[in-house]
Write a structure and sequence with these properties.
Blueprint lengths: L2 E7 L3 H18 L1 E3 L8 E5 L5 H11 L1
Parallel strand pairs: 1-2, 1-3
């Protein structure tokens, strides 16, 4: 059975790039497949940036 990873990215374009690199690494080293459904995921990654205040506020809101 393939393990699934859900990645949510907030912040700058560099974070989008970093998330793509993390997904590539997880695919190669651990055979993870991406999913758009966090409920179906075996691994949740939240990639954030605290430099941009709005991105930081979104993350805190999602975490509760």
């Amino acid at each position: 059975m393939t393990r699934k990873v859900f990645i949510q990215t907030h912040g700058c374009q560099m974070n989008v790039y970093d998330s793509a690199r993390m997904l590539d690494a997880l695919r190669v080293s651990h055979a993870f497949a991406p999913t758009d459904d966090p409920v179906q995921a075996d691994l949740l990654l939240l990639n954030t940036c605290s430099i941009r205040e709005k991105a930081q506020e979104k993350v805190f809101s999602q975490l509760g």
